[in-house]
Design brief:
NodB homology domain-containing protein, 35% helix, 8 helices, signal, 270 residues, Polysacch_Deacetylase, alpha/beta, NODB_dom, eight-stranded parallel beta sheet
Length: 270
């Protein structure tokens, strides 16, 4: 199977809030990484191209990559989008709808700590210029630790709010923190999302699960050598990969902590 690096970014900034700083890449480093992708011979393709290949459609280029961005930080509009546009690179931006700045107001209904976030006007502009806008839940919970109507609202409610704002269908979803479960995947499918990305820190492939596409998270401490290896298809396993016993144990532990009112905290992992 050909390794397809699906790169996951969050904020691209020189001065991020402390809570997201470990998951932030400086603009200089981001430019260097884009150059490294180009120099490696990778063809950056839209997420829908990977999805089509997973479903048996047209094959991907010999060496393909995908760019994705989570949460909806304002620096995507001011920093990331111009750099992508200059290079003609497609990308998918997953928005936590409860963190979006409404006209004349402030974000509400989000579990994300304070940070400069996109507003709906900016998101609509990005959509009009070709950036794929996807959903990242309403409030950014660990979806595999919430149940019933609350879980459904996070998944289907996000889709409804996003489509109302964009004026067209949205089909791409990303799991907050990268966490999912068979039940969450089922709800995502039933809500009408046709693709969903996790983290896994593994390469995707044309044999990947379209509702749990593997990604490689680029962090502030991702070394040049690690990133270079990723562009060469080295340094990580290739999907599809079965859920490990550790993943199931970790999910059970987080569910227990949530049930007793002491959820596992920390900055978001995606």
């Amino acid at each position: 199977m050909k390794a397809v690096p699906v790169f996951l970014y969050h904020s691209v900034s020189d001065n991020p809030p402390s809570w997201i700083a470990p998951y932030t890449v400086a603009p200089r480093v981001f430019r260097e990484q884009l150059d490294r992708i180009a120099d490696s011979g990778l063809s950056v393709v839209p997420l829908r191209r990977l999805l089509a290949a997973i479903h048996g459609g047209p094959p991907l280029p010999e060496r393909a990559a995908v760019l994705t961005f989570d949460d909806g930080f304002a620096d995507f509009y001011w920093t990331v989008a111009p750099l992508l546009s200059d290079r003609g690179l497609p990308a998918t931006l997953y928005v936590t709808v409860g963190a979006v700045h409404p006209p004349g107001g402030h974000p509400s209904g989000s579990l994300l700590p304070p940070a400069p976030m996109l507003n709906w006007r900016q998101i609509s502009t990005l959509d009009a210029t070709g950036v794929e806008i996807g959903g990242h839940s309403q409030t950014h919970p660990q979806l595999d630790t919430v149940y019933g109507q609350k879980c459904a609202d996070e998944i289907s409610g996000c889709k409804q709010r996003l489509e109302e704002a964009l004026g067209h269908e949205a089909t791409a979803f990303a799991y907050p923190h990268g966490y999912s479960s068979p039940a969450v995947l089922r709800r995502v499918r039933e809500a009408g999302w046709t693709s969903a990305t996790a983290v896994e820190n593994k390469f995707s492939s044309a044999a990947d699960n379209p509702l749990r596409i593997c990604r490689l998270m680029v962090r502030s401490d991702t070394s040049e050598q690690t990133f270079q290896n990723w562009t060469r298809g080295l340094g990580a396993r290739v999907a599809p990969i079965s859920e490990s016993l550790y993943t199931r144990y970790w999910r059970g532990y987080r569910r227990l902590r949530a049930a007793i009112g002491s959820p596992v905290g920390g900055p978001p992992q995606s």
